[in-house]
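Pipeline run #58 for the internal structure catalog. This entry was flagged by the ingest filter as a single-chain record with no existing model, so it goes straight to prediction. Upstream metadata was stripped on purpose; only the residue string is passed forward. Reviewer on rotation: M.T. Logging verbosity set to normal.
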Amino acid sequence: MTAPQTTIFEHMSGLARELGAINLGQGFPELPEPPELIAAAQAALGGKSNQYPPMRGLPELRSAVAAFYLRTQGLTLSAEQVIVTSGGTEALAASLFALVAPGDEVMLVQPLYDAYLPLVQWAGVWPRSSA
């Protein structure tokens, strides 16, 4: 019987523990939270909705993202052209499902993020590998 493979997250977290490094890979930096961040979160939870946001993201956040791209890159976007996701895997899945159709082929270059293959398979796409 072979040992189960670990994900890149498990591997990197193990290395961080072993080497005494700060682990930024999974969202737990192991540093004390800045008091101003806690205060802002408390104010937002107490004064605004703490329910699920609209599927495309909060309008004020989408507007802020569009303004950021205009200011930093000269790219003119409307808030309606911006979509906010809850993380990279969700953004990857949304992009993949928008751009491929069942039966298409997708090249996966290795090493790769461990969500790529299951997302490609879920989309009904034929994965091709560089290895």
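catalog note: DSSP finds five helices and two strands in the chain.
catalog note: The CA atoms of residues 88 and 110 lie 18 Å apart.
status: ready for reviewer M.T.
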